[in-house]
Amino acid sequence: MNDFQLHLEFGQHSGNSKNIITLTSSCCYVTMYLMWDYTDKVKEAFLHPKNVGEIENADAIGEVGSIVCGDALKLYLRIDRETDEIIDARFQTFGCASAIASSSALTELIKGKTLDQALSVTNQDIAGFLGGLPPQKMHCSVMGREALEAAIANYRGTPVLKTDSEHVVCKCFEVTEEKIRRVAIDNHLTTVDEITNFTKAGGGCGECKTDIEKILLSIWQESR
Amino acid sequence: MTTIYLDNNATTKTAPEVLEAMRPYLTDYYGNPSSMHTFGGQVRKKIEDARAQVAALINAEPDEIVFTSCGTESDNTALMSAVETDPEKKHLITTRVEHPAVLTFCHHLGRKGFRTTYLPVNSLGQINPVAVDNAVDDDTAIVSIMFANNETGVIFPVEAIAPRLHDRGILFHTDAVQAAGKIPLDVRKTPVHMLSISGHKLHAPKGIGALYVQKGIRFSPYILGGHQEHGRRAGTENVASIIGLGMAAELARKNLTEEIIYLGRLRDRLEQGLLSSCSHARVNGDITSRLPNTANISFEYIEGEAILLRLNEYGICASSGSACTSGSLEPSHVLRAMGVPYSAVHGSIRFSLSRYNSDKDIDTVLEVMPGIVNELRELSPFGRDMLAGSKTHE
């Protein structure tokens, strides 16, 4: 029922032409239905998140998301400069329950790991740690992984690719082609809806859906 | 844990009196109102009583009421009737903040060659009646403007718009789903041509609605089939629910003045209490023209789903205009149309009250909300400057 509702909403975006304003909104303020899709681990991590807050003079900070998009994560790391070990990880998150739970899970997963070990933590690991996330919330786990990459890049001084130097596919959520490709390959995604669930791309005005379709085609045709 | 239900613009509790009125028609009196025998015929009589009860709520004639399956069907029917009865006209006028029952139908017609003017709202969520006048042209088939907005509770100047359109001979429909039973409606004083009502928003069950169709206007049915509803809506009548809607309309009409005062007082207590106990909270919508039961408040720098789930822990039910709760990835189209900043849209919470709420319910919300807001703000990377007063930052 809930999934059905959701798909209907997404369905409205397809096939719209330019002279029609796109309905990008709530259906009469859909009341909380996602609570029932969350695992007990997500609920626990949301209600009692671990490692909340800032680290003063942190060795690394990774910031992703924005208030416009509706979720944002700021990750702070304390790193042992000798061993590269993550001694402490803390976060501040603006977002829904699964965004907060994913942030908490991320910090628990990476504490005690070296940076290289931490980089092997995938978005699936974050979702797995929480006993899974609803499909439409997978982008929260991707945000966790991105914050980790950003923090490590910040520590190592390697430049993070700037959005403006890349090809932005989804203008509503500023999602680049590079990100869509990476997330599609990492998570074996084959449909536009899946890309929307994992990256939000295509979830706004929906105009980029055909572009996403083309990217997916090129990825999976190349790999054949 | 007791449920504190503050989401009455989403749906309402079926009134016990309504359920009682319906019960015999779900059990013993199951006849088909179209049948020739007395067993069915006695049911027909009850449907006509219900029609009169619904008509009385909006000061219409009974035969101006058509029962439908829901508010959405009423809205779709009104728009479809307009374009069917005047096929030459290809222009629709509505607002940017309508319910999807109207907006999506306009998009649908757009794909069939119709053009729609979507009137903007100001920062208070209010529309300008003059903009309606200006948008009308010779090609306009219908104007559809909601009586009151479901998200903000803002009451639109339908009373000012209706006579002007009436004088110009322009068909005018209003979606009064949120207004019916909450504020006085009078289709004689406010000459709308069609008006939509939904049962479950006024303590009748889900799956029943009504459309007022002014006597004398050209009407084309949307659902085709048998001769039910005088040929205006085919399909065997949802007898029990029709009787329930009749009872709900009567209860609403009898208690209207009392409830407006009661709900207004509760709502104002809730709103004032939250604004004074939570910093960076703001009301969305025109407070000078608003349904008495609705408060839409933004708690800046935090996200609506998170707030709702924390409220849920206390049994409190509300809703939000945030992206995460909308079923889409974009936040409320209503608040966006009002130009509410993203920092506030994502943290918007709608509390909508009913006669079944008490002061005790409000006390509980006022007690728990500041803690929830503070905890989530502690979690949030935004609003550092805002919180700087209470926390030291390097």
Descriptive keywords:
heterodimer; A: about 220 residues; alpha+beta; Sufe protein. Chain: A; Arc Repressor Mutant, subunit A; B: alpha/beta; Aspartate Aminotransferase, domain 1; Aspartate Aminotransferase, domain 2; seven-stranded mixed β-sheet; 13 strands; disordered C terminus
Describe what you observe in this structure:
The complex is a heterodimer of chains A (224) and B (394). Chain A contains nine helices and five strands; from the N terminus they run ααβββααααββααα. Chain A has helices at residues 2-11, 40-47, 97-110, 115-119, 123-129, 138-156, 177-187, 192-199, 209-222; strands spanning 60-66, 71-79, 86-94, 168-170, 175-176. Chain A is of the alpha+beta class and 224 residues long. Chain B is α/β, with parallel strands linked by helices. Chain B folds into two domains: 4-9 and 256-380, Aspartate Aminotransferase, domain 1; 16-252, Aspartate Aminotransferase, domain 2 (3-Layer(aba) Sandwich), CATH 3.40.640.10. In chain B, 39% of the residues lie in helices and 13% in strands. Chain B has helices at 16-22, 38-57, 71-85, 100-110, 129-135, 158-168, 239-277, 304-312, 333-337, 342-345, 359-379, 384-387, and strands spanning 4-5, 65-68, 91-95, 115-119, 140-144, 172-175, 194-198, 209-213, 281-283, 294-299, 316-317, 319-320, 348-352. In chain B, the strands form three sheets. In chain B, strands 2-8-7-6-5-3-4 form a seven-stranded mixed beta sheet, sandwiched between helices. In chain B, strands 9-10-13-12 form a four-stranded antiparallel beta sheet, covered by helices on one side. In chain B, strands 1-11 form a two-stranded parallel sheet. Chain B is globular, with a radius of gyration of 22 Å. The two termini of chain B are 43 Å apart.
